[in-house]
Input
Amino acid sequence: MDLPLKSPAELAERLDLAAPGRLLLVDVPEALRKVAMKERDGEEGKETRVVEGRALRTVKDPWEAVLLWREDRVGSQAILEAVARRVPPGGVVWIIVALRKVTGVATSGAHRLGIEDLVRSFRPGEWVRDRETRISAWHVAYRFVKAALSGKERGTGNGKREPSDHRERDGRGTPRSTRSGIEEKMPPFAFHLPPAPRLIPRTEKTAPPPEKSGRSQRPAGSGSPRAWLRRTLPAHST
Output
């Protein structure tokens, strides 16, 4: 790519290409690559490596600084994440993208990688965007610095890790120190359940007694009906 750079003599200083001990160039065009090599040529203890984005998985070791050239949004998420993993805390990443409202770039404006895409990949809190500079009439570079590890991530000075580590949580997912603090602050009655209500057994429904009719019932074994009537009915005088 024949790219007319903006002030090539000052570009190496603006990108601070001579400072890092190890510099990784990813998909950088020839014109910018020559600027980086010229700035770092002859510097003792300086290492510079050129790699394509599709071969980034072959890079296993960390790099203090990465210079990435990326115009197209398609497939950029995987490359940005791979670059971020290869930068140690305190390292920097320069990402060069095409401006949205310019003509003369091969990638259409709707598919160009923008600053909003970079912010989503290099999230605030983990990364700090602190600088930007023009590379050409069509391109701009944004610098992101990887934040240092917090105390919880690198452990405390006494060799113990913070209770936020998932291996030091209790069965309910709460850190032990936090759980004990809650139990100490809350009154003891808060952990007592109310007594269960007394269950009253249901009584079985019994069938109502049969209604008595006006006629007397003939008991079993009383003989024939005629004999039973003679015994039951009072004698009538003639």
In short: The longest helix spans residues 30-40. The CA atoms of residues 132 and 142 lie 4 Å apart. The domain at 8-150 is CATH 3.40.50.150 (Rossmann fold). The chain is about 25% helix and 15% strand.
